[in-house]
Structure prediction request, 155 residues.
Amino acid sequence: MIFSGKFVAKFVEPCKDEQIQPNGVDLTVKEVYVFKSKVEFSGKIEALPVEEITPDDKDFWDLNPGAYMVRYGEVIRVPRGAIGLVLPRSSLLRVGCTLFTAVWDSGYEGRGIGLLVVFNPNGIKLKRGSRIGQLIFIKAEEQDIYKGQWQREGL
Prediction:
């Protein structure tokens, strides 16, 4: 079962009316990061190999084709009995980009991240605060909650 956007909105802060969709809530981009170094990955990450990019004076990032880490502008609290997924907005796909994310477990709280990939060979100009993804909650049978290293990230 996928919960309604009105239900999801109760767990997203801040959340404007225009972000609420029938089956989820749109998330905005607050920060963009570039990958700066190779990292050894064995399942746990000690430090993220990224550096924040500063937008221009009109709050746009000029992004060439490639992969970027983005941090959402909203604090998410995934309720017990649900998991969160973020899917790209169709308007993001229409400009040649997509968004990859992982499962957000029950009990997760934070300003999460996504992997923005620019496939458009000409790049894009992305404005801070643009709605790039839609958070949905799916019913989960497991009632345990997340206690991992990324709990309260970005807060």
